[in-house]
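In this section we walk through a basic example: taking a raw amino acid sequence and producing a predicted 3D structure, encoded as discrete structure tokens. The instruction is simple. Fold the sequence below.
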Amino acid sequence: MVDRATPPPATGTRSASDWAFPLRLHLSVIIVGLLACTALPLVWMAYTQGKVTALSAGEAQMRQLGLRTIENYRDVFNGGYTAIETAAAVPQILTPPPQDLPAKQALLLRELKSSFHIDGVYVGFADGTYIQATNLATNPAWRDALNAPADAAFAVRAITKVIGIPVTTWTFFDQDIRPLARRADGDDVFDPRSRPWYKAAVSEGRTTSVGPYVSAATNYLTLTFATPVAGKDQVVIGADVMLVTLGEVVDTGTISEAAHGYVFDSTGRLIVHSDPAIMTKLRDQMRRGRLMSVADVAATDPAIPAVANLAQDRSRPDGDVVRFLVNGREYLAQSFRAEIAGMLKNYTVVIAAPLDDLVGPVERTLRRNLAAAAAFLSAGAIAAIIISRLISRSLYALADEARQLGNLEFKQSRVSRSWISEVNALGKALGSARDTIRMFSLYVPRELVRRIVMTGQSAIGSASRQEITVLFTDIRANGARPKRSSPCFPPISKPSI
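The resulting token sequence is shown next.
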């Protein structure tokens, strides 16, 4: 008989079993992969949508801040404009003092008390007489300069003429406009006709603005509104707005320490900054007759170059939100040009703030959500590993029993009942095979079957012809008679051992 042995595998090739991996690995990879394919797109979509929402929220917050700031900005200057227009409509205000002096004082003080942004209201006349009401409560510099009483809230200065000589009188009032003290100032040489606001209003013949300039009395940056009275020669009513007050209006520190408000004049010069330290530098430079450059401010505020360029862009519509980078940090900015009664139309207000400060709470929420998603995904991966081990444990036990069965070892099954019906069916089939082979091994020597399996001769087509010796014997116990031979076969003699 010709041998037909199976040829060995070719060198350098790998069989399918070489690429096999444990079932628990397959199950873990499949479950984790399914979790990742399901969770990661959802997390990515949520994060992307959250970023868009955060940016939209930041821009909306910037718009709200800009609208609130520009409204307060208009209120500051509208207060000054309304004050001079109202005073111009009162006949008693148009007569030079000391005529109608109590009425003039009452009107100016009422206007001053009704506005928190006006530093002073005054009237200058063609003969050099003058009346002025000043707010001491919001201007400590005035209080110190005038040596006013401690509880004085307002002061009124009246310059009258006595035999052609100007005489100055100061009257101090409390918060309820009740007089507290009165004194004369013999050294006052103030002449309203020499002041820039008086000259500008008379020469232009309409309401105008003067400044900003450093007030000689308060040493603060000041902007003045002045209007000539129609029908009256050279009677000018003016109101002062301190730009320190305006800096408080455009203050954006409530949303971010790095957020600032700016006001630029028609020449692009920075006249208001929400940082008090920078405002002090602006005032000191202007008092010396020098302009503070953008480079000087950039040492403290790195966003000022980009903000200055934005202020000079006249083509951009009001309220448009702009994004720009400053040292790798993204900023949002908004610019406005607010015209007040035909004045200040070339003044530009800019609000700028870092984007991460505006969207900080939303960003923190997104990061917390990402951390939670990563934690849930990790928990799912751990659960997948545990489940795969639970599933594969019974299969590994069945595989071990199959190996024992191949070695003709018939031990008791270690596989308990599983929650998986296929595992139970496989365990039952393996138990039936074990019982069948155990019964078969009672008639065929185990060593012979094991040798056939180990040499691979149990495969179909691997049979070979061999010479063997077979001994049939009848083993008899001592004292027992030999069994009668079959009538078909002669008796067999007892071999010698």
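Looking at the output, two observations stand out. The longest helix spans residues 23-88. The first strand starts at residue 118 and ends at 124. In the next section we compare this with other chains.
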